[in-house]
Amino acid sequence: MKLPVAVQLYSVRDEMEKDFYGTIKLMKEIGYDGVEFAGLFEQNPEEIKAFCDEIGIVPISAHVPYYDMLENPEAVLADYAKIGCKYVAVPYLTEECRPGTDGFAATVEGIRKIGEAAKALGIQLLYHNHDFEFVKIGDDYALDVLYSTIPEDLLKTEIDTCWVNVAGVNPAEYIEKYRGRAPVVHLKDFKKSGDKLGKLYDLIGIDDEAQAEEEEDSFSFMPVGHGVQDMPEILAACENAGAQWVVVEQDSPAKGDTPVNSVTLSREYLKTLGW
């Protein structure tokens, strides 16, 4: 049995805002086994659970803003427990929270606090990386420092394979490094021209002033299997590491494509590999 495949609904966020339940149903029709939420759009958690049960799609996880969880972790996470999410991920850190700033130590302790609240609700907290966690603290990547500081029962990985590659690290090797601690892995593909990466955080829908002004077309997110990533190697690493789910995410479609077509192409490609 290959691992089940979910889709991060941030990939189709505009469609979710227009038609929340219709878009989830469409993801099921495309062939996804599960969904990972990126906002509930003011929908009722119990109704979301009932709908997912009805159509046969698993609400596996959710990306929830760090500060939202930090402010009131029990109340915020309770909604996801009602939906039936087994996992919740810290999706992104704003600049003042990141490694290399005075705020990072407090961020680590904040994530620990959220992890404790999640555990009490029967939810496993994950951390979803970008590339900025691969700065060094001493001899170690900041991401590794995070995982070595917070115990595994409070924090596991959600390795985003695109951002690992962008940081100059082999995604498959990094997944294997966290064997047994990598229950959910993000499959994300891309292509780039030259050495410039462009304003990447603009591409994921975040205005990040720290990003340098560079060529707009030097980087593009792509459907899984349509970019530079060695997906068969990455998928093998997921299996070897004991992952429970793989999640397709495409932050923005390639030029001329649509979000729905992008996630459709990703699912079709994975089916050609037997997934």
Q: Largest sheet, if any?
A: 8 strands, parallel
Structural class: alpha/beta
User: Number of domains in the coordinates?
Assistant: 1
Q: Which regions are unreliable across 5 or more consecutive residues at pLDDT < 50?
A: 210-215
Provide a descriptive summary of the structure in words:
It is built from twelve helices and twelve strands. The chain has 275 residues and is α/β, with parallel strands linked by helices. Strands 3-2-1-12-9-8-5-4 form an eight-stranded parallel sheet. The longest helix has 17 residues, at 104-120.
Quick overview of this protein structure:
The protein is α/β, with parallel strands linked by helices and 275 residues long. The protein has twelve helices and twelve strands.
Features:
TIM Barrel, 12 helices, 275 residues, 12 strands, alpha/beta
Topology:
Elements: E1 5-8, H1 13-18, H2 20-30, E2 34-37, H3 45-55, E3 58-62, H4 66-71, H5 73-83, E4 87-90, H6 104-120, E5 124-128, E6 136-137, E7 140-141, H7 142-149, E8 156-160, H8 161-166, H9 171-177, E9 184-187, E10 189-192, H10 200-203, E11 219-222, H11 231-240, E12 245-248, H12 259-272
Helix pairs in contact: 2-3, 3-5, 9-11
